[in-house]
User: Fold this.
Amino acid sequence: MITRKVFLVIMAVLLCIPSLIGGQPPAYADEFEYNDVAKGSYAYNEIHYLYEKRIQTGDASGNFRPNESLTRAQAAVIMTNALGIGGSVSGQTFSDVRPDHWAYSAIERAARAGIFRGNNGRFSPSDPISKAHVAIILTRAFNLTGTQTSHFSDVSADFYAVREISALERNGIVERASRFQPNQSATRAQFAAYVARSFEPSFRLDVTEQSVLYQGKVANTSTPLNVRSQPNMDGDVLARLTVGTTVDILGEVGNWFEIKHGNGVAYVHKNYIQKIGSSTSPSDDRKVMEEGRVIANSLNVRQGPSASTETIGRLSFGTIVDIYDYSGNWALIKFNGQWAYTHKDYLVTRKPGEGSGLGNLVIAIDPGHGGKDPGAVGNGLREKDVVLGAGLELNKRLKDLGASTVMTRNNDTFLELSQRAKIANDAKADLFISIHANAAASASATGTETYWNNSHSSEESKALAEAINKRLVEDLGMRDRGAKQANFVVIRETKMPSVLIELGFITNSRDAAVMKRSDFNEVVAKAVIKGIEDFYNW
Assistant:
């Protein structure tokens, strides 16, 4: 057996060759493990499987770097390794991949095999590969088929890769969640998981076991019931079921039930399925007390008001439910025609018909800088003063809407960055809003931007940043610099959806003039609140 020390020496030598990044590993120890991929972590088995199959490896220090984005060139190398596409190549398909490029051979082979395609004669080898394009290359490489319908809320029927993403869902290659984030860069761990599951079916997720809602049986028909590939009459007929046949119901799409079919999913019309063992339908005597919206990625629905009772389904982020009563921390709801419970801590609620659902939120407001730290200075303004005024106004207006708030500072006080994050975490805040103003060496720099971090609640943080930034740009009339990922301490260490707002550039005379307006604080506060409400889609 090769020792770890010898292995690392071999890796150090071989990884001097750039084409091995994400490619062929050297000889390996039977019990080799990456330093940064602990047992039980995401895709642990798939990552080590690809290592053993000489498909994808890490770096000379024994790290896999699971959370780093994967480039298109690296993806091409991994795919040609997985498919065993070899042989010599010549010529140049893409203007930006010359024969002396480290991944030239793999890119040429992948392109000629029809797995990868470029754009306007370019391959863009150093660009991160998006999750949508990962779906496309995997369906091409492994002949996977999908439909025009995806369960992901951010993959619409007219999205350019909906069929490919649906194929990954149906074949147990991607985890089901509320969103897929198709335009986000795929990480090395995600790509390893998807490739391993495509390559080796034993790694595939059991899409039925993880999401069966209940069982039904075919009824109300004198002829066999068609099982279709899509939730519409245009779907191919995959099978026919006789009266009394039992099916596992995985979900609902319009007038169709999604059911288990073989190792994947298919669809049958609701009119011909009767639920097995259903309890008496909920009495109409109860009145709706409140409306709730799910603020977790996936929220369990249970038979009773306890975590020890059976899970009978799940609600995705953004789902709106009627609440009929409370039992401790549990909300009584209707779910698929029966009474059920879900935990109230993962719902934002309002009275029926009310315009705002912020009443049970705890929102942390962080005016940046303060005390001995003035922040950016320019055009007669100090950042610490600008953001404190905006923060105080936001605090007032949120309280008027019934939200609970916690401010990291409400006067001219200095706080360390880690203290600010701790205040929000200790308060168990639902959202963290850090308010800043920007500065640049060039007085021409202008505009509003909002940052998020992927350490905690990354999907929600990104969505919150996008929603707030859009409203601020609209209402302040600032240049839109977009929502961006960053590693600022206050949004990295807070454990709830968190954003850091840069209202504008103090060093720009036009932006500074906006900040000096008498209604500036009011406009900022209203815009942030509208962004929060957009985030909850309430």
Residues 208 and 260 are 6 Å apart (CA to CA). The longest helix spans residues 458-476. The chain has 13 helices and 23 strands.
